[in-house]
Every structure is written in structure tokens, then in C-alpha cells.
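Hey L., structure's done. Input below.
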Amino acid sequence: MKNRNLTLDLDNGIFTNAQLSYPAIGKGPNPAVLLVPGGGPADMNYTAGENAKLFWQIGQFLSERGFVVLKYDKRGIGENNTIINNNLWGKLTYNDPKQDAKKAVNVLMQQPEVNSTKISLIGHSEGGEIVTRLAADNPTTKFDNIILMAPRIENPRDQIYYGFVGFPVEYAKIVLDKNHNGSFSLQEVLQDQIFQSMVGGNTSLILSPTITDNTSTELSKSVSNISKDRYVNILTEFKPVLEKRMEKSFEGTKYENPMAGPCPIYLGSIVNLSSTLSILDNVSSSTDILILHGQNDPGSRVQLAFLLEQKLSELNHPDPHSDNLSRPRTSFLSFKSMDNRKWTHT
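Output:
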């Protein structure tokens, strides 16, 4: 495998780093793949930890098997997901990563190692929605394949609600409610790192007097006086605080605290978008669609992937791997079930 560093011109004086990986041996031009990350700060390797660099791993795997692969830093983002331009990142709207992906695929198609008639798009989470829109909005550009890794499928408003409220409540019911009475111990959740990641790294961040009602104020006092444990009712106390936190996330005009949630400007730009399901009929039937979805993915419920499969079936999107052409071109990868309580984004 060989690599070549590139700089992508995103227009309006905005540039970002990218890297092209391609086979070290053999003659080109070769089929090519663009890797599109999900929401939030993401570098070109899609770094999730010291030994977890998803796009670097995918790029290496594909390049060693005859593909050219392009990956890029999201605008305003540098190595290890570092926000290197707060002003640029804080003004991000949904249209920015969508247009950046379009720019990137055009650059990829122009590379001498690339067969521009053999282009595939891989997108994770929001990136899955973006590559679907690229395929749907550009009918004159033939994409061989789009690979949707745990894509955002439903209406973004519903996805936002699930992320802020639905998933933490679900986690609390299944994992934190040790006594099966609809509540959890504040002492215990302060030691639960997964729960802490859901509430911005600090329980007091959401259970604070800044949300001015009696429930959250009392909960905040319990957090500050940890020697006196308190049990929080999941539906009548915890859920309302989460809903208020979600409402507050749409307030303001700038990105002040990465731990507190997404930028209000960005959230406002996606909340009324149509769902991925609603645009599938605009994707060419000549484009293969592969769905990869972890059964235990907290960011995107696996049930939604089956809705996506059903929609493709209704559209009679052909499946080259089946004698029955009414089946969609889809496949699934499932990991451990929720009962094993391995709550990691897969």
C-alpha cells in the first residue's frame, strides 16, 4: 500500500487535509472508495481511541485488495479529532459536510490511479445519510456501491430525541435499575463511565440548577452531597431533565462546550431534514446498496436498518446476490445483543 497526502479545497478559502491510499503493486486505474465520517469532530482516520482508527483500518484493508481510498479531516478538525478552528467548526451546518463530501468525491475521481467509472461511497452514521444523498442528488454520476454503516435512517429530529433522551432512558432501565423498581442510584451512576459519556462527562452537568425546576435542583443537591445517596426515578425525574437538556441544546448561536453537546447552529440545520428512507427512491437501481449495522449500536438502533431493508424491497431495488430480484441489495452484520450489555458504538 502507498499513501499520498492531499489538500482539499472546500471553497471560500477553506482547506482540509486528506490522504489517498492505493495499491503498491499492479497496474491501474483501480476502483476507488470515498470514506465519509459521521457527525461530530472527526479526523481522516476516524479516531476513536489509541488502537481504534476505523477509517485507517478500512483504508488499509481495501488498498491491499486493489482499491484506491480517499479519507479526509472534517473542516476545522485536525489529528485525533482536535478542533483546530473553533470559528469554522462552530458555524458548521449540515450542508457543509455534505458539500465537502461532494468535493472529495470529485477530487477522488480526478486522481490518475482511479477508474472514475468504478466509485463506491462508504458512510458511517450521518456519513451514511450523506452518501445516500450524494447518490440521490447526482443521478448523472454513476456510483457502483454505497455502503451504509449504521446510517442515520429516521427523521433527524427523532434521532436527536433518541440520542438525548431515548437511549439514556433505555440504558437506565436496562443497566442502572438494579432493583427493578424504575429508579437508579446516584452514587452508582457517578462511577458508570458509559452513563457519564451520555451526560457530557459529568452527571451534575445535566442535574444542575441551571435548569430551573424543583426536580433538577434537588437532584443537583444530591449530586453535590454524594455521602447521602439518592434514588432517581427514571421516568418522572431523569427523563424530564434530559428533555429540558435537549431543548436547551437548540439555544444559542455558537459552539461553546464540546462536552455539552452539538452546536446549536448545526442542530438547527438538520432538525427538519427529510429522512434517509424518504430519498431512497432517487438512488439509481444500478447502484448496489450494502447495509452494515451492529445489533448493539447505541447511536442507531438496528431495527431502523430493517426498516431500510423493507423500504428497498418496496422499491424493488435489485439484489445481485439473489435469484429473487424483488429483494433489496442489502446485508447485515450483527454483533452481541443488548443482553450482554456491551454498550459500544459498533
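The domain at 2-155+274-340 is CATH 3.40.50.1820 (Rossmann fold). The chain has two domains: 2-155+274-340, 159-266.

-- N.
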